Amino acid sequence: MLRAGGYKLTIPRLTVLDILEEMGGHLTSTELIDLVEQRNPTIGRATVFRTLDLLAQLGIVGKSAQSSSTISYVLMSGGHHHHLVCTHCQRVIEFPECELTDLLNLLRSRYGFHPESHLLEVYGLCAECKAWADNLDLNDSHDTEG
User: Fold this and answer.
1) What does the pLDDT average to over 6-30?
2) Is residue 93 within 8 Å of residue 84, measured between CB atoms?
3) In the chain, how many domains are there?
4) Domain that holds residue 122
5) Which region, left, alpha or beta, applies to residue 29 given φ > 0 means left and ψ of -120 to 50 means alpha?
6) What average pLDDT does the structure give for the chain?
7) Given CA atoms 1, 32, 45, 73 in this order, what sign does their dihedral have?
8) Nearest to 24 by CA among 69, 70, 83
């Protein structure tokens, strides 16, 4: 996609992409900068930020808000990436299924919008936290009945 967009495949860009692929994504800019510096100390922080901005602009990398103050970067394989994010324990579950074809077609036909990629994050409770919350509610209702 870099070459198709008229961009060169430079050492810093390859390094950032390689690290994201090796680590499975979900790296903050600080984590990524540290790993880039370990691999190639000649690549500076500003270069890493410019590279991330370009990769995000091209849809190769997505920015994921894993918490209110932390953004992590993920590879957008196939132009999409999906997460279930637990609002209690902050666990992130990736899922590969993409059932958004109908919605994307609707966006094209209704708004003339042509999606290039997407990052879907669904927030709620994971199975463990939901079971814990249900158990807590059950215990609270027994405490108030007596």
Assistant:
1) 89
2) yes
3) 2
4) 78-146
5) alpha
6) 83
7) positive
8) 83
